[in-house]
Amino acid sequence: MAEPQRRRRAPKKPDEPLGSLSQPAPVPDHARACVACASRELTRVSMTLGDGTPVMFVSCQGCEHRTWVAEDGEHLDAAGVLRRAGKQ
Ligand SMILES: [Zn+2]
What's the 15 CA to ligand 1 centre distance in angstroms? Predict the structure, then answer.
């Protein structure tokens, strides 16, 4: 009469943690994995810098590494982003 124990399901992640930030945008190759730990659990937010440069803000859920990736694949650090944001 032993019943098979149910396996616990992996906890499901909420689809939209904060509401309407996420947009169905294609994920570019250069923003698929964390550059620091190669994790694919990333939060991505498309944004435009002050000088008009469209970038994707990428935040790693594994190691909390953050980077900004330009459309051409260039990675910007926080200093570079601030420099561009303050250009105008
Ligand atoms: Zn990482």
Answer: 20
